[in-house]
Specification:
With 310 residues, the chain is an alpha/beta fold. 30% of the residues lie in helices and 17% in strands. It contains nine helices and twelve strands. The strands form two sheets. Strands 8-7-6-9-10-11-12 form a seven-stranded parallel beta sheet. α1 crosses α9 and α3 crosses α5. The longest helix is centred in the N-terminal third of the chain and has 19 residues. The two termini are 27 Å apart. Glyoxylic acid binds next to loops.
């Protein structure tokens, strides 16, 4: 079986080495490969591939994503219709996201961002101890990553709620389902964690209106997708203090332009899309397991839903 690796940003070499350890019979190719007959390719393994590349292979058994999100695949207008798209679910990727979210929720909950400013002013001031069980955290998007974050935060004693378009059940987490429940969910959320995919239903979901529904001084943590937030609306809300702090790992345009006001905004932490990086050893194991499933005639896991956009 033959696989083509196509990415505008990732190095194929570690993936090749690790995948061949699990699947020695795999013919691993890297796009572009001028000598390759496209009709002999069974799989494409992709992260932000060039537009149109996936559509060149007429006999694909599956499109395998190197990341949790599949928006980098679905945005290709030349995507073949009937080929299954397999998302990346990997315990190491989930753990990385939980670490990022727990770190930053604790950071803003314990006012460490404010202590940093006090230190800069050489000012010795104790801001008081916030009560964890009274801190209302809201996780928007309860897929694999969002559910794991909500569970971990509830385990730390936060008052956690979750919002999703579909009903989910997470012990210890209050659920809000559907667009009609969104204002109520936002109104009770002091620390908002975005875990939604970027789809037609979610792009721009955090606009001026949604930001104004959050309580005064709320914090926003976005390690999901930049397109979820209307950036100029967030800048406006930070200006008027309606939003107290933002931790942003993802942006409408990446890399973030050196001229972007987020970089040196006193109320913004910027990280460069590192909340959870796909780890080669465990992710390659997940990919190899899915290729074996497909070769045995079984369904790979988990499949993306094209209509839903994730
Ligand atoms: C990263 O953004 C991913 O989708 O895994």
């Amino acid at each position: 079986m033959r696989l083509v690796f196509a990415s505008t940003t990732k190095d194929p070499q570690p993936w090749q080495a690790e995948l061949l350890r699990h699947l020695p019979e795999l013919d691993f190719r890297v796009w572009p490969d001028p000598g390759l007959d496209p009709a002999t390719v069974d799989y494409v393994l992709v992260w932000k591939p060039e537009l149109g590349v996936i559509g060149r292979f007429p006999r694909l058994k599956a499109i395998l994503s190197l990341g949790a999100g599949v928006d980098h695949i679905l945005s290709d207008p030349g995507l073949p219709d009937a080929v299954p798209i397999v998302r990346m679910v990997d315990p190491a990727l989930t753990r990385g996201m939980v670490e990022y979210v727990v770190h930053w929720v604790l950071h803003v909950h314990r006012d460490f961002h404010l202590y940093r400013d006090l230190q800069a002013r050489r000012q010795w001031e104790q801001l008081g101890a916030p009560e964890t069980s009274e801190a209302r955290v809201g996780v928007m998007g309860l897929g694999v990553l969002g559910s794991a974050c909500a569970k971990a935060l509830a385990g730390l004693g936060f008052d956690v709620a979750g919002w999703d378009l579909a009903a989910k059940e997470i012990p210890g987490v209050r659920l809000y389902v559907g667009n009609e429940a969104l204002p109520e969910f936002l109104a009770r959320t002091q620390i908002l964690v975005l875990q939604l995919p970027a789809t037609a239903a979610t792009r721009g979901i955090l606009d001026a209106r949604a930001l104004a529904t959050l309580p005064e001084g709320a914090a926003v943590i976005n390690p999901a997708r930049g397109e979820l937030i209307v950036e100029k609306d967030l800048l406006g809300a930070l200006e008027t203090h309606s939003i107290g702090y933002a931790v942003l790992d993802v942006f409408a345009t990446e890399p973030l332009s050196p001229r972007h006001p987020f970089w040196n905004h006193p109320k913004v932490t910027v990280t460069p899309h590192i909340a959870s990086l796909t780890m080669v050893p465990s992710a390659a194991q997940a990919i190899a397991a899915n290729i074996r499933r497909i070769e045995r005639g079984e369904t790979p896991f988990p499949l993306a839903h094209r209509e839903a956009g994730f």
